[in-house]
Protein backbone atom coordinates (compact mmCIF):
# COMPACT_ATOMS: atom_id res chain seq x y z
CA UNK A 1 0.00 0.00 0.00
CA UNK A 2 1.52 3.34 -0.97
CA UNK A 3 1.56 6.45 1.24
CA UNK A 4 -1.36 8.18 -0.51
CA UNK A 5 -3.61 5.10 -0.20
CA UNK A 6 -2.64 4.73 3.47
CA UNK A 7 -3.33 8.40 4.23
CA UNK A 8 -6.70 8.23 2.45
CA UNK A 9 -7.60 5.10 4.38
CA UNK A 10 -6.71 6.54 7.79
CA UNK A 11 -8.56 9.77 7.07
CA UNK A 12 -11.73 7.76 6.34
CA UNK A 13 -11.84 5.43 9.36
CA UNK A 14 -12.66 6.25 12.99
CA UNK A 15 -9.94 5.73 15.63
CA UNK A 16 -11.08 3.24 18.26
CA UNK A 17 -8.29 1.99 20.56
CA UNK A 18 -4.53 2.27 20.82
CA UNK A 19 -2.00 0.51 23.01
CA UNK A 20 0.68 -2.14 23.08
CA UNK A 21 1.87 -1.38 19.55
CA UNK A 22 -1.62 -1.88 18.10
CA UNK A 23 -4.10 0.73 16.93
CA UNK A 24 -7.64 -0.15 15.87
CA UNK A 25 -9.99 1.85 13.69
CA UNK A 26 -13.71 1.35 12.94
CA UNK A 27 -14.98 1.41 9.38
CA UNK A 28 -18.12 3.46 9.96
CA UNK A 29 -18.59 4.42 6.30
CA UNK A 30 -18.30 0.97 4.63
CA UNK A 31 -14.98 1.49 2.87
CA UNK A 32 -13.99 -1.45 0.67
CA UNK A 33 -11.14 -3.66 1.83
CA UNK A 34 -8.13 -3.23 -0.51
CA UNK A 35 -7.54 -7.00 -0.54
CA UNK A 36 -11.04 -8.38 -1.26
CA UNK A 37 -13.12 -5.29 -2.21
CA UNK A 38 -15.80 -6.09 0.41
CA UNK A 39 -16.47 -3.58 3.21
CA UNK A 40 -14.40 -4.39 6.30
CA UNK A 41 -15.42 -3.93 9.94
CA UNK A 42 -12.20 -2.84 11.62
CA UNK A 43 -8.64 -1.99 10.66
CA UNK A 44 -5.91 -3.21 13.02
CA UNK A 45 -2.48 -1.61 12.56
CA UNK A 46 0.38 -3.56 14.18
CA UNK A 47 3.41 -1.32 14.63
CA UNK A 48 5.74 -3.42 16.78
CA UNK A 49 7.89 -6.28 15.53
CA UNK A 50 5.82 -8.74 17.58
CA UNK A 51 2.15 -8.31 18.45
CA UNK A 52 -0.40 -10.57 20.08
CA UNK A 53 -4.07 -10.35 19.24
CA UNK A 54 -6.66 -11.71 21.64
CA UNK A 55 -9.80 -12.29 19.62
CA UNK A 56 -13.11 -12.85 21.36
CA UNK A 57 -15.01 -13.63 18.15
CA UNK A 58 -14.28 -15.51 14.94
CA UNK A 59 -13.20 -13.15 12.17
CA UNK A 60 -12.08 -13.42 8.57
CA UNK A 61 -8.89 -11.42 8.00
CA UNK A 62 -7.30 -9.72 5.01
CA UNK A 63 -3.80 -8.29 5.34
CA UNK A 64 -1.33 -5.93 3.72
CA UNK A 65 1.67 -3.89 4.83
CA UNK A 66 2.64 -0.24 4.86
CA UNK A 67 6.06 1.10 5.82
CA UNK A 68 6.89 -1.96 7.93
CA UNK A 69 3.51 -2.02 9.71
CA UNK A 70 1.06 -4.89 9.24
CA UNK A 71 -2.52 -3.86 8.45
CA UNK A 72 -5.27 -6.36 9.21
CA UNK A 73 -8.77 -5.83 7.87
CA UNK A 74 -11.39 -7.73 9.86
CA UNK A 75 -14.59 -9.15 8.43
CA UNK A 76 -17.28 -10.66 10.62
CA UNK A 77 -18.59 -13.83 8.95
What low-confidence regions span 5 or more consecutive residues with pLDDT below 50?
A: none
Strand order of the largest sheet: 1-2-3-5-4
The portion of residues forming beta strands comes to 35-45%
Mean pLDDT: 93
**Largest beta-sheet characterization:** 5 strands, antiparallel
How many domains, as an integer? Answer: 1
Number of strands: 5
Radius of gyration: 12 Å
Secondary structure category: mainly beta
Instruction: Quote the distance from N terminus to C terminus.
Output: 25 Å
* N to C succession of SSEs: HEEEEE
Number of helices: 1
How would the global form be characterised?
A: globular
Helix residue percentage: 10-25%
Q: Could you describe the 3D structure shown?
A:
The chain has 77 residues and is mostly beta strands. Helices cover 13% and strands 39% of the residues. It has one domain (3-75). The protein has one helix and five strands. The chain has a five-stranded antiparallel sheet with strand order 1-2-3-5-4, with helices on one face.
Amino acid sequence: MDDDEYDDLLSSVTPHESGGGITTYRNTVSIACPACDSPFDDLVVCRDEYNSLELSVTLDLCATTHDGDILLFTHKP
